[in-house]
Amino acid sequence: xxxxxxxxxxxxxxAPSAPYFTLNRKRLDGLRRAHGIESETDLAKVIxxxxxxxxxxxxxEVRPTADFMAATCAAFPSASFESxxxxxxxxxxDAP
Length: 96
Hints:
Blueprint: E1 7-8, E2 20-23, H1 25-34, H2 40-47, H3 51-58, E3 63-64, H4 66-75, H5 81-84, E4 85-88
Antiparallel strand pairs: 1-3, 2-4
């Protein structure tokens, strides 16, 4: 099982065939400021991931793993899962 510091890469060659989650970075930034977390490095430490993993998930380079999502929710228990992550459902238009 992957730890919270790892993430899964989205497929490069084809549109995703299954729903997937992305990080709501705007909400996470609001929580970071509200909790007095000053830097991305500190935010990554609070979540329990490498700074590079946080950046790659934030940029959509990789998808958040279940462990990443659980660690993020645990770091900010007052925030709902739905506010931290967005569900994307591929459509027929996304198909190659």
